[in-house]
Amino acid sequence: MACLSSCSAARTFLLLLELLLQPLSVVAFDCPQQSTVLGISPRANQPVGSTCGGACGFHGSCAAGLVCKEPVAAPLLQRGGLRTPGVCAKARGSEHAVLNPAINLLNGHLHGHKLFVPVRLYSVKRRQGAAGSALFDLVVAVKMSGCWNDGRHRLGNANCEPLRRSVPHVFDMQVLDSQPHLASTEAETSSHNAWSSRYRLVRAVPTHAPVPSTNAVWI
């Protein structure tokens, strides 16, 4: 029992050393059973800010409603390999129910090759529209992601993280919600058929980041 932590660390080190010493021709590695490598099961249901994922998932998984955001990079080895650990965070676009539909509409409006994803939400204001609808005025910053804007990728996909060197673009947007009395589910705000029939883009113009922006939410 006294060597539990030190033995576990030693096993982890030996596993990673074994991976590093594999010949360059190796393109796949099947992760061993975690219980036989570390002696304990990876932590589950971890809160925001916790380390997660990594090589063979050794750092555990996140709680429901959270995603493990790992650096966008091709793993050295496939099927688990030498993946860099990530951090448990809220799913992109979960800061406001209208944000995902708004960015989906923006991508359709811009017709860019790559999908833009939100990185900072400066403000959201709601006001009453005609015939029971609601109008949302948003100021949001977006960055280009590594995903193609082809209708098959969507916000929240593991590979659709903002590119590090991408320049942020700020948009002043207005979105009309024709059914504001209905709750928005994650599936609805991500599904093209659902949000295209409920939401409509009224305005999307480039602007500058508001100053001061102390109430902005990083995404």
Question: How would you briefly describe this protein structure?
Answer:
21% of the residues lie in helices and 29% in strands. The protein is α+β, with helices and mostly antiparallel strands.
Please name the CATH architecture of the largest domain.
Answer: Roll
Remind me, CATH topology of the largest domain? Nuclear Transport Factor 2, Chain: A
SSE order: HHEEEHEEEHHEE
Number of strand segments:
8
What distance separates the N and C termini?
Answer: 43 Å
> What's the helical proportion of residues?
10-25%
**Percentage of residues in strands:** 25-35%
Taken from the alpha-carbon principal axes, the silhouette is elongated
Count every helix, treating DSSP H or I runs of 4 or more residues as helices.
Answer: 5
Radius of gyration: 21 Å
CATH class of the largest domain: Alpha Beta
> Overall pLDDT, averaged?
76
Strands of the biggest beta sheet: in what spatial order?
7-6-5-4-8
**Low-confidence residue ranges:** 74-80
Structural domains: how many? 2
Secondary-structure class: alpha+beta
Mind describing the biggest β-sheet? 5 strands, antiparallel
Strand and helix layout:
Blueprint lengths: L3 H17 L13 H4 L13 E3 L12 E4 L15 E6 L8 H12 L3 E15 L5 E15 L20 E9 L8 H5 L1 H7 E9 L9 E2 L1
